[in-house]
Design brief:
This protein is mostly helical. 64% of the residues lie in helices and 3% in strands.
Length: 500
């Protein structure tokens, strides 16, 4: 094998600069959504635009392309999962896709997203979709221009999906979602008597929710040396490095949903925390795909976070935090309430059974907007029509309807499907983990979650983006994406909650 170390070192230097610019963008976005005063929005949009342009210019520089071409022989002569081969392979794939997009288009998409986020906040506050509408129209036009950069394709949604789920086609998602609809729509419609969840609603001081959440997350693997938790309107997680993990949540004073939000974002955070440290400042440093990322958040929030054994340990501590509200509520009653299945308008508050239908309708609407079948002006009515069709509920207003999600204001289309795909993968991973580790409930009852966390580190997290998503799933569970285990899991949940 030829001596390629000097050229590989140069590649790492260039990739490190690109990563630094991307992480700087992430930090500015984190600040915008947590700490920045509202009047800072116009200047922040320009700051983000400048960094995005600089990053894109470096990521598409001809010198980088030439270097990657020189290193191709090294990639082809090394073990596929070796550090050097993986860096070259993933960097070359990213380069070839990014160079299709003009720098000014990438910069304008960033500016529009930043300004769109501010408009979304304003629209929610005023319950007025018209405030967001021109921003969404502009973002859609930019998205269509972006899609055109990637011709030819089988479906115009394919380039957007590929940004988040490499190698997956829109037709694959549509087939999986058709199966989810086939089972879940009648399953949800057949629930006649939802469990009483009134114990989850009342007067719950946000500061006590925060204290409890931090205690729970510390048991799961969060520490105050590498993590932090902040407040925002729409919760998210961000990794600036494997030792700088930012979680955000929203604690309301009349319910406990903010705690579940923390559990969800922890799943994202622990993924990034446990990526092999060698991958820092390379394209390998992130999780392999958005669906795999969502599989971690949904696994910790739902499969673990709504489990009876988990709350056998934590519920007495929650009762101590809120004695007036929960002292008279038995663990079994609390657990049933936590797993209640009932259609609702709000995606982030949805139960496990109805959640994926919220995603299916958004996926369908994104494709219809991209094709022109639904215009941004049509979106509120189209959104309400689909949620009535699939879930049988009517949003009370646009804040509960089309304005509930931040994604169409500040993010590219194509992300929504990964939430439901993540649900599917989460159960496949859980089944494989428990088949190898045995029953974990006794450990959870003792407040011990390290066995599962370390299994995920070894099989999923540490690999970052070394493997393509489909390849990683095959490697870990021995098969491809399969909705049936997830659907069986949901059927069992509904049966367990049936009236006694």
């Amino acid at each position: 094998m030829p001596d390629l170390d000097p050229r590989f070192d140069e590649l790492l230097r260039r990739l490190g600069e690109i990563s630094d610019l991307q992480r700087a963008v992430g930090l500015l976005v984190w600040d915008q959504e947590t700490k920045m005063p509202p009047l800072g929005a116009p200047a922040r949009a320009e700051q983000l635009t400048t960094l995005a342009r600089l990053g894109h210019d470096r990521a598409t520089a001809p010198e980088l392309g030439s270097l990657l071409e020189e290193l191709r022989e090294f990639e082809e002569s090394s073990e596929p999962e070796s550090f050097e081969a993986s860096v070259v392979r993933v960097a070359r794939r990213d380069y070839e896709k990014r160079r299709r997009v003009p720098s000014e288009l990438r910069a304008e998409m960033t500016r529009a997203g930043s300004l769109g986020y501010g408009a979304w906040l304003e629209a929610r506050e005023a319950a007025d979709y018209e405030i967001l509408l021109p921003h969404l129209e502009h973002r859609l036009a930019l998205t269509q221009e972006y899609v055109a950069c990637h011709e030819p394709f089988d479906d115009p949604y394919d380039p957007l999906l590929d940004d988040h789920e490499r190698g997956m086609l829109t037709s694959d998602v549509a087939a999986t979602f058709a199966r989810l609809k086939e089972v879940l729509v009648p399953l949800v419609a057949g629930i006649e008597e939802p469990v009483d969840d009134s114990c989850l609603h009342g007067d719950f001081a946000p500061e006590r929710q925060r204290e409890f959440s931090l205690e729970m997350l510390s048991r799961w693997g969060m520490d105050d040396q590498a993590w932090r938790l902040d407040d925002t309107v729409h919760p998210f997680a961000l990794s600036l490095s494997e030792s700088d993990i930012r979680l955000t949540t929203r604690f309301d004073d009349d319910n406990l949903n903010g705690i579940l939000s923390c559990l969800h974002e922890f799943g994202h955070g622990i993924y990034e925390r446990q990526v092999d440290g060698r991958y820092f400042r390379t394209p390998l440093q992130e999780g392999t795909s958005s669906s795999f990322h969502e599989s971690q958040s949904r696994l910790w929030e739902n499969v673990v976070g709504r489990r009876l054994s988990t709350w056998s340990f934590f519920y007495p501590r929650l009762q101590e935090a809120f004695p007036h509200q929960l002292a008279g509520v038995a663990l079994d009653e609390f657990h049933r309430a936590l797993n209640r299945v009932a259609p609702g308008a709000i995606r982030v508050d949805a139960d496990e059974v109805t959640y994926s239908l919220h995603i299916v309708l958004r996926f369908e609407l994104e494709r219809e907007m991209l094709s022109g079948a639904v215009t941004p002006a049509d979106l509120p009515e189209a959104f309400d029509a689909k949620i009535r069709e699939y879930l049988g509920v009517q949003p009370a207003n646009v804040v509960e309807g089309v304005l509930q999600d931040v994604h169409w204001s500040d993010s590219n289309f194509g992300y929504f499907p990964t939430y439901a795909l993540g649900n599917v993968i989460s159960v496949q991973l859980w089944e494989r983990a428990t088949s190898e580790l045995g029953d974990l409930d006794s450990e959870f009852e003792r407040g011990e979650f390290g066995t599962l966390r370390e299994w995920l580190r070894e099989h999923v997290h540490r690999w970052g983006s070394v493997f393509e998503p489909a390849d990683l799933l095959q490697r870990v569970v021995g098969g491809s994406l399969d909705a049936e285990p997830y659907l069986a899991y949901l059927r069992a949940k509904v049966e367990a909650l049936a009236p006694r």
